[in-house]
DNA sequence: TGATTTTTGAAATATTATTGCGCAATCTCC
DNA sequence: GGAGATTGCGCAATAATATTTCAAAAATCA
């Protein structure tokens, strides 16, 4: 079912649910122009086929006391697959690390981290990250402020691209 | 209402909704150990007070054809507030830019971008980003793979921290 | 074109969300 | 310490939504 192409209604559903993941199925159906039952079936299919990975409340971490956000560029000593995987597994265990992406180029990984305060981050940095097996170098940058933070799919680009190729 | 401290039930609600934003209120109430009506009232309060910014479906962008993910480190010529703001406003307009964070240190901004393919990204890079007013330098890194991608609050850290300070 | 497969939507049913309200616990201020 | 005010709970009733069922419409294909 993976290769199934999506029709315009499916894409509209994805766009709407990306914008508001708690929209009722009735409202969603109205917006995409079909009745509720087929709309719900489409949503289920999109979930089962992996187009929708899940739904998440967007919780304000600063309000909860996580005032510090940091990007860490990490270089490793060995880039053997086993060593890369080992580092990734470590990242999955560290709660303060919210994202871990492997990169091309000089740096091997970029991590997005959060912490309640600088000292908490510093102790994570010196006690965990820098002491971790195979870590050669870490460069960190504090986030001053967020101008845009909308992970997800740019559906306007997708639609434009589809209509061009149609 | 901003400074209102949250009780353990509120935090549990946030944690549950962060993990599954479409959970029914009945299920949520069951999990946090209160009945449905007060649970719903708490959720509404959390939404209105800004602890919950919204809900979003997590859509698989690769499945939709966005195969390329890139981090771009941007340096500007001028760091005057007006110039910083102007660049941020540009980023908000660019659909391919999903995140824009201002950093301390040598680099001024880090952008997370997506694109259907490399050539699309390249043309964005050369036609838009590099030609933009005040942009001095851009260094890009392609994402090879994601080891972890869980934006949000590490509630385990939060709870540990609260119990320690209790 | 006609048979086959898919998808739809009206209607019925099951669940869930929401409101109203009285009760109990906690606070507050004498 | 205690009366009144405040807060938060949960039961019960109602409104709305989700989900199933099924016959008809639409799309697909030989």
From TrEMBL, chains A, B:
The keyword Transcription regulation applies. GO terms for molecular function: sequence-specific DNA binding. InterPro entries: ArsR-like_HTH (IPR011991), AsnC-type_HTH_dom (IPR000485), Dimeric_a/b-barrel (IPR011008), Tscrpt_reg_AsnC-like (IPR019888), Tscrpt_reg_AsnC/Lrp_C (IPR019887), Tscrpt_reg_HTH_AsnC-type_CS (IPR019885), WH-like_DNA-bd_sf (IPR036388), WH_DNA-bd_sf (IPR036390). Residues 6-67 form the HTH asnC-type domain. One of its GO terms (cellular component) is cytosol. Keywords: DNA-binding, Transcription, Transcription regulation. The keyword DNA-binding applies. GO terms for biological process: regulation of DNA-templated transcription; response to amino acid. It holds the Pfam family AsnC_trans_reg. This is Leucine-responsive regulatory protein. It comes from Cognatishimia activa.
């Amino acid at each position: 079912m993976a290769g199934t192409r999506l029709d315009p209604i499916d894409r509209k559903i994805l766009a709407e649910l990306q914008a508001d993941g708690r929209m009722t199925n009735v409202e969603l159906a109205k917006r995409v122009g079909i009745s509720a039952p087929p709309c719900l079936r489409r949503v289920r299919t999109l979930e089962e086929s992996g187009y929708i990975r899940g739904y998440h409340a967007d919780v304000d971490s600063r309000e909860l006391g996580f005032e510090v956000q940091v990007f860490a560029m990490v270089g490793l000593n060995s880039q053997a697959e086993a060593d890369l995987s080992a580092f990734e597994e470590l990242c999955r265990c560290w709660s303060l690390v919210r994202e871990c992406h492997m990169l091309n180029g000089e740096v091997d990984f970029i991590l997005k981290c959060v912490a309640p305060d600088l000292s908490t981050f510093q102790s994570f940095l010196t006690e965990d990250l820098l002491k971790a097996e195979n870590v050669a170098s870490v460069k960190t940058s504090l986030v001053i402020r967020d101008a845009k933070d909308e992970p997800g799919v740019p559906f306007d680009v997708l639609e434009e691209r589809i209509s061009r190729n149609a």
